[in-house]
Batch of 4 targets.
Target 1
Amino acid sequence: MSAGVIGVFFPSRIVREPAYLALKDLCIRGKHVLKSPRRGAVLLSLILMCYFEAVSRRETAFSILSDKLMRISATIITLNEEMRLARCLESIQGIADEIIVVDSESVDNTREIAESHGARVFCRQWTNYSDQKNFASRQASHDWILSLDADECLSSSLREALVALKKGNSLAEAYAFRRLAFYLGRWIYHSGWYPDYKTRLYLKEKAHWEGQFVHETLVVDGRISRIEADLLHYTCESVSAHARSVERYTTLAAQDLWTLGRRSTFPILLGSALGAFMKGYLLERGFLDGMQGCLIATFAGYYNFLKYAKLWELERKKPEDRRKLANRK
């Protein structure tokens, strides 16, 4: 075996190691080195040393590379979501390296469904949206958080984009996705509902959720990049469900306005309702979404009307009654 031949079998870094240099010297010193059993044993030992050194370096390089890959913890807050949670969890398989579900004392099979999909489940009394989501982030083992709602799931294009992102180098502290809503049997591409970018993937040390009652906001200390792929949102499955949602969220929104010092007047009450309908149906081309677009615009107007009506009602309550209402979750 010549010195030139053995160099073929080892990477460039190994040729500078003492074991390799000794092996090379031994090969150069004579063509008949293997005629001596002792020298043959030495030669074999050196070959093995070089081999294991090469393997060790390869494993170390792989370990370093693995540490640099993006690891994602998916977080989901839930309350009685047995009908929708499985679809969400199935869509993040192979994307999320860990799943965290924070459940607000569901009385259905939400927690069992989460556990069956490998999630770590925490049962926690409801506080508010921001606090629940921040709690979920703190339970995560990885640096990157993928925050989803139970009625959302990743599209195939978004899955592909996230797989590519995990393999590359992140250039931002957070990423926003387009959110596409499925409403009463139709995908909504107008009405102010699309593209509706939502920042859902972020470094937990660089972002946190804010908002006391409703419309929680992710505050990011750093750059937010956009991923041009859809996060699918399976929103209200019926008109009655939409009405119940408006009833619940307008109560929270009125409380939020009250804490900000806002007050309701007759022009605001009617003007905001009419303005919301005109904006959604005409300016944001809700008419292109058919009957669903008309319903969305109408509910948007009703939402504003009810929000300011409840704010007006809150103003008329006694101070102790307002405190009780503000403490309702």
Note: Residues 1-16, 30-34, 54-67 have pLDDT under 50 and may be disordered.
Target 2
Amino acid sequence: MRLKILALIILLFSISFSQTNDYVKVAVLDISAKIEIKDIDRNFLTERLQIELLKYRGLKVVERLELKRIMDEQKIQLSGLSEKDAIKIGGISGANKIIIGSLTEVEDSYFLIIKVIDTSTSEIDFIDQVSGENTIELSKQINIVASKIAKALLKLPIEKPAKINEEKNTEKEEKSYSSSEISEKFWMPLAISFVKPFQLPGEDYNIYGGAISLVSGKYNKVFGLHTGIININENIYGAHIGIINTTYQSSFGIKIGIVNNAYGIAFGPQIGVVNKADTITGIQLGIVNIAEKMMGIQVGVVNINRSGAIPYMFGINIGF
């Protein structure tokens, strides 16, 4: 009997961790400058880049506070930061890619160079440069850079440059949307799925009400209840009840199942056999509880809080 229980736990672990390949985890370091540039708000530009990247489903961004904690622990300063140090920070944070930006002033213009480096191979996957005369002009360019980064990392098709239409009265211009923009435009009160992608409506929709997964179903955001065997969402605002419950960005509410995954922030309780969250604000109640960062309580046989003073604890583990 004990062997069967152990085999079941191992199987659940394998199912839980196998879903981590559905996204690319990136860490965005604060934009640096070799000399003090008072006219440009670098913190604002860094936050803007993070916000734009989060709009793309399939990308997950490491929290800035977590990066700051790592830099403090490793005694690494942003000024004079080398690419080797950046890769080290990205690796410790668990990111697949590290994004660094450097700002330079040339006469009356400012140039921002952004690089994306693979933390495992140290290869540069993407590099681009934008320019502007002030923070607002650079901020407008960040949107374009984030789109290019997302397409490069997620292997999305590259759009061809738009052709100039010589007719002034043309209003029917083709417009491309990121997957997040599409999902914000469409919503349904009820959803049902047999197995992804055989579901109604499609996974780009937001559900305001309830979603039922006969086998598995995936939707962008669910405001309400998502129940079934395998339930997958980018964000859930309400309740996840099933065998395997997974969110890739944010979970606000309760998760009840055998395996509960929150690849992002989980606000509320996770109740199951195996509970896993990048950041948990609330309680994890189960046999095995795993958190990269915890601001709450773990109650279980094995409790893991990787960022805590005591990473492994049996019984009850409290972290803030």
Note: Residues 135-153 form the longest helix (19 residues).
Target 3
Amino acid sequence: MEYRQLLQAKAAAVDAAKALQAAANGRLMSTDEQTQFDAHMATAENLQKQIAAADRMRELERGTSAAVIEVGDNLAEKKPWNSSAEFFGAVIGNTRAGRVSDPRLQASLGSSESVPSDGGFAVPTQYAQDLLQRSYDVGVLAQRCRELNMTSARLIMNAIDESSREDGKRWGGLQAFWESEAKQYVGVRPKTREVQFVANKLIGLTYLTEELMEDTQAISSYVDTVFPDEFSFKIDDAIFNGVGAGQPLGILNPKSAATVVQAKDAGQEASTVTALNILNMWSRLYAPSRKNACWFIEQSIEPKLYPLQFPDTVGTQNTMMYTPPGMWGNNSDYGLLMGKPVIPVEQASALGAQGDIVLGDMNQYILAKRNEVRADSSIHVAFLTGELALRFMLRLDGQSWWNAPLTPKAKNAPTRSPFVTLAARS
């Protein structure tokens, strides 16, 4: 299991345990509930050990990154970098000198598949992987997506074209028959569709003063902190709102036809969220996605959740729908709604607009990425102020694995999807 998969699996196990704890609502768990809770916790603890082992391995690899030297190799090109600060210092020094004199940088120069002029320097693998890992781990949405590694500028895959669970339409037309069914078997060739990912460029740019250029350790610390935060914000924003041209296609973009838009209540007031909104959104979520689903909200919605109640069947008492963090057995960092985490995200729409609350299984969103980072610099962009422009470039793409909501087998039932948002209330 890859590192990111370990993190996702651990988070899922912890969320499942918290959901059981919240459902108990202060009472003693039943024997069955306690058994499930202990199993989830044991799984999380085992995964934590695997994560810790992977972290130790990464540290060891970082400390023993000596390159393999073969007879006939250029030893100067193979000499490993002692630190990321040394690499950034070499990039800046060679830029200011106007020529590439370090043989390691010369060896790392490369051109892209389509535009040779913007290749830049390949960031050494051990530092590039850390930068990439932080960029995706910091992102609230990105860390929950299904990752796909790309080895070229374009990746084309075939996927089953399924938009209905009716007989003869599941899995793109695959059918199964009981032997006793008295009808002729009719074979159907399953329908497939093409899914294409293009390694779009995400570029981060900053300016370094002459004073900062003299302190390579400070530059390394700045790069390690600021660039992952900015990259993760842009990646999360694209996962939600991306237009799909030169960037990932977001689940809230109209081009992403898989997302279900749940209608508001009849006569519903502006900028409100009702208990019926929540129940209807939950009913539109594809059932197998409930295991991994989370609520993603614009933070202004949070006060609207506290008063929501389930009407009691007798009509004499109400049960709260929302469990705030730190209350009623919910010891997680997030509130719980229908037992699922409620996570505020900056990328959500404004209160009252479509997209201000989303119920989503982000494991059904594919984030395809190149496992490389390129760095480049220039003294010409801000020549008059004596500053140097430092640029980093990631390459990635993303889109929903679904291309349309699913029509259930039950007649006249509403469509379902792993992504559900609430219509505008304005």
Note: The radius of gyration is 26 Å.
Target 4
Amino acid sequence: MGRPPRIGSAYQETVLFTYYSGLRGCLPHLHPKSLYMSEYDTLSIDIRDGVATVTLNRPDQMNSFTVQMADDLEAFFTAANDNDEIAAIVVTGGGKAFCAGMDLSVSGNVFGLDESLRPTLEDLEQRLTDPDIQRGVRDTGGRVTLAIYNCDKPVIAAINGAAVGIGATMTLAMDFRMASEKARIGFVFGRLGIVPEACSSWFLPRIVGLQQALEWCYTADILDAQTAMSGGLLRSVESHEALLPAAQAFARKLVEGRSAVAVALTRQMLYRNSAQPHPLAAHQIDSLAMFYTSQGDGKEGVQAFLDKRAPDFPGKASSDMPPFYAQWRR
């Protein structure tokens, strides 16, 4: 199959996407460059001025989450790492909702799990990418948030309406959450007799604190935007019409005039090092990252400062990350 047409920052191209099954990490024999930005079934993608706007595109179903949407999101965030036309990502919902949770209308196990299996902790530790575990046991929302966590680009959620269940938890792996005044957010798992998913038991307490996270999960309340903002979940609440332009402008502010390599390293260092038990682990990675960036884009940054001009960083996140990076991020 030939490479799709190049999507450049000088113009806009909106396409619908279908899933590529060979995800990096799951099928390691595939070269990363085989994961092209092609077609997905449940997303629409708009790339402009370095910002990819990802729209959950099932508006007639309030963008309810399906296994296909999980596959599409996982594939997109994996492929985005190798697309240097994307500097930052904004995720929003088509129509009135952001994502109204799992699509409960599907037949069988609505979460797409194989009820004939009896998985153990050892299965998840030792066979994580085994096809039976990958497709029949692993939480679909968790596959998405892990792909977002591993992304090298800043990610912003523009929550334009209802975001409940996985609609709320998928945003926790994103760097920032901005919401419309019409947004409603709920960690409603207790109402269904299930548990928080999508790695939210790792992300949510880190964002809002353990006490607030427990309250929202125990009560399963639907939160208005101001309540979510007061609880520390949101960066800002915007008027409904201003939300997406504000999120896109903020995304550009994060990356314009910045080194793509340094941005990627900074994102991963803050997430990973802050979870380490001792600052020595952060020092080790800081030292390696400083060593290599000082010889790469850092030279251009210093020279631009001395010349009193804007820097023109040549480094690419797809190909110029330091040699330790892939092993450390694994």
Note: The chain has 14 helices and ten strands.
